[in-house]
Amino acid sequence: MQTDDYSRRAGIRSHDAPETDREAAGPEATDDDHPSLTRRGFLSGTAAGVGAVAAGAATTPVRAQEGSTRTVEMTDNLVFDPEEVAVTPGTTVVWENVGNIGHSVTAYEEDLPADAEFFASGGFETEDAARSAYSAGDPDSGDIAGGETYEYTFETEGTYPYFCIPHESAGMLGTIEVSEDAGATEGASGPVVPQVPDAAKTLGLAAAATLVATAGFAYVFLKYGGDYGVTR
What we know:
The chain contains five helices and twelve strands. The chain is of the alpha/beta class.
């Protein structure tokens, strides 16, 4: 009987014990004494954090990288395609012969910007030397055969007119416009698309990884919950 009385008394004490920490703390306890986190609040907070990271990646200034290239095709129709190209300083223009007829790339020396260097396939230093040396089928003379290329990097701002020696009279002419704001303009081949710096790519990947990790944690949190002072 004594054992049964003890059990009953223990059961009464257990039944009468406060069910929550708030009741144990007494009537003066406040929400500040027992902070809680709702699942909705958790998800809202993590979503805001991920959004801030993603926004930082999206608003990072992107500058056109030096060392970019533009391609101009030389065709059997005796044209440079495109005939006019706008580039920023430091851009390398590659002329590619996509046909079977040989061509040259030769600058009009007198029309170049004041501080610009002369350029011509074959590596000649003057327009007269390029014209005199040209011979069809001879790459050393400046002839660019089908499937071959010639390239030149433009450093000085200004307008660079050029021509093909054997087809100048047929109107095979071209122009390269070099300026700092060329990336915001459209050339004959369409808009110039700025390249994305590696730093911006890394930040974007970090934001994506954070989003995936947060989504996974939220799934576990919602599915299994836990005794972490979290109200549902």
